[in-house]
Amino acid sequence: MRRREPLPASLRAAGFSVAEARAVNVGRARLRNHELVRPFHGVRAEAHALVSPIAAFAPRLRADEWFSHESAARLWRVPLPEYEHPTDVVHVTIAAPGAASRARGVCGHQATHAHAHVVRRFGLACSDPADTWLGLAAHTDLAELVVAGDHFVLEPEVLDPLDLRPYVGLDHLRARTREFHGPGKARASAALELIRPGAESRPETLLRLLVQDARLPEPEVNPVIADGSGRRIGRADLVFRQFRVIVEYDGDQHRTDKQQYRRDVVRWQRFARNRWDVLRFHDVDLFGRPARTVAQIAEALTLGGWDGRVSGWGGESGRVSGWGVGRGRVSGWGAGRGRAERRGG
How large is the C-alpha radius of gyration of the chain? Predict the structure, then answer.
C-alpha cells in the first residue's frame, strides 16, 4: 500500500481550515481521510494537535469575532469550576451587525455596544480581562465571580516576564463595572466589594469567603510574616495578625511535590516557634464540612483574644449570597472541588 503523504508542517501543529489546506495544495481525498478529525465544520486536525475546543475553533474565527465569556476566561487561566462552566462549549462574540456564530459546540454572542475591548492572548483574539470578568457575571455565582476577580487582580510575588500580572488593576475593574450596563451588573458590583489582591488559588478565595460568611474578622491575604528580629519567615494564606492565627489551605502540591511540602513544613515550624497558631485545611474541610472548619477557626481566634465582634469587611451585612454555613454546606460546592494551584511561602 502506498505511504500517505504527511501534511505540510504549517498544518501539523494545530487545527486548520479546509481553505488553508487547499491553499497549500492538500487535496480533497487527504482532507476526507479518517486520520483527520473534524471538530467543527470546515476544520480539520491531526488528533494529537487538538489541545482544546478553543484551539480547534480558532481556524473558523472570523476577522471581527473573538473568544469571549468562559472561553476568554480559560485563555486568561481563570480557575472556573467545570460543573458550572463546561469546557466543551466555545464562546465567541462578533461585533454588530455581524451574525453570531451558530454551530454545534459553539455559543455565539453579538456585541451591540460600541466599545468592545479585544486583545490578543496566546495569539488569539479574545476579550480583555475586564470584559471577560463582566461577561462571566450573568451566569456565574457570586463566590466563583469573586474567585475570577481575585485571579485577574493578582500580582504574584514571583512574576513571569512572559505573562505580566496583574491582568487588570482593581481600580480599573471598578471603573469598567460602573460603565457596564449588561446582564449581571448587580452581581459584578457586589463581587467587587469582596475581591482582594493576593489570593493565589480558587480554594484560598473560597476559604476567605467562608470566613466572611461566618462573620469572623477579615484576614490579610498572603502577607509576609517576620520573626521577632524582623527576618522573613514566609507568607501565609490567611493571617489574623491581631490574634496570631494563620489559616492555610493544603492543596495537591503536597501530594505531588515533595520538595515543596518539605519547605512548607519548615515554614509551619518557624511560625509555631514564633507563637503563631497555624490551622491547616484540606479540600474535605472546605467543601465537605465547612461548618466544622468555621468552628475551628472561630475557636482559634477566641483563644487568641477575639471578643466576637466583626470588623474589616465591606458592605452592610458582610454575607455572601447563597452560602449555607449554618446548614453545614456551601451551595453548589460539592461537584467543583478543583485542585489548588499555588505555592508555599
Answer: 24
